[in-house]
Amino acid sequence: MTRPLTGPGLAVLLFAGLLPMADAFIVNVSLPTIATSLAADNADLCLVVAGYGIAFTVFLTLGGRLGDAYGRRTVLLLGLLAFTAASMVCAFAPTTGWLVGARIAQGAAAALIPPQVLGTISATTPPARCPRSMSRHTAVSGLAAMGALFVGGLLTSVDLWGTSWRLIFLVNLPVGIAAVLLTALVVPETRSATPAGIDPRGTGLLAVAGLLLLIPLNRGPVLGWPWWTVAMLVLVPAAGYALWRVETQVSAAGRAPLLPPSLLATPAVRRGLLTVVPFLAAWAGCLYALPLTLQQGFGLDPLWAGLVVVPLAAAFLAGSLTVPALRAHLGDRATTCGALAQAGGVVWLLSCVATGVLATSAWSALPGLALVGFGQAVVVGSTQISILAAIPTRHAAVGGGVLVTTQQGAMTIGVTALGSVFGGVLAVSPHSAAFGVVLAVQLAAGLAVVLAVRRGIGRALTVSPR
Question: C or N terminus of the chain, fewer CB within 10 Å?
Fold first, then answer.
């Protein structure tokens, strides 16, 4: 019999869950320093961020299947150990290529962690307390993502023993070891009574489709779009179709596909994912461009660049915690309100860029960043609740994995695509202009969410086919 999850056990799980999300963003503020240290160009920097995201996205659902079959605490411990080891390799990377490879390994290891955290909470927490525990996980994950920008700037500025940017990875060694020891002590072992099988063909095709899309988006602008980059993009629809056919066959055979076609065919789920994907993609691209603009464009050091985004983190946390209350009073209009708040923040930032105020005072961005952080949290949190409510009960576990995988994939695409756009504009214009283009895309994505909800897409999300 599985022992119940105690307060310390939940705290350790939340602590372990911090690591993957924090490391997805902690590197952003250090990118200018990495560029100088390793002679990296913009495309290389995109790969440092996107390489982690690609591996994290591809292996996330697989990580959940492994935990269900072999024990969630066991897989969590393996993930933490591999993540810590990969972090050490990142810290000692002598070249950009080495760092990108280590980041890919780090992302693959990180993908083993969140499914075990969420699965253990679900399996060991009474139903009445589960929503509260899950909301804490969401809030902590959001805070980790935003707070990592400040922590990354702080650690890079400290330059302890001359480690510079390498300290953002070295710090994972004591943190990772502590997470391993605490997990072994207080987290109970759980596993699924009926674990779903691993879908190797689906996993492989998902990886192929992602690489066919992301590699040309990253290298194409740098290399002048040679024929092979165009050919890879042309093959993306074929890979997507092959993935769909394989998953349909797996489902028809009575096995558990990586991406259940019946789930994706549910109108409310499909519409919800189509609404949130461009929004998250634009958001991730903005988080990539912001630290580069503050440091390379406006001359801030990593610490001050991290401090500037603290209101973003604080507002994101506040927004995450208020989503349940907002939805209770406003329903899907909460999504609209969040999108409008974020759009207002983006307009503020655009005005600061256009008038040149941001170039003379980075602190002028604070009101806009606070609105952006709050609105982002409300949109993502509200949409996530709506999508999960529309997933049939029989697909609840795998549906959550599909949602998280889609979100991570969207952010990876956003970093790659908007990072390339940012670099392209930067080649002929100053940082303020390049950042303005990224902000314009973020504004368009926010307004698209408003239009989607007004046209009934948002209202359709609340229809549960259970």
Answer: N
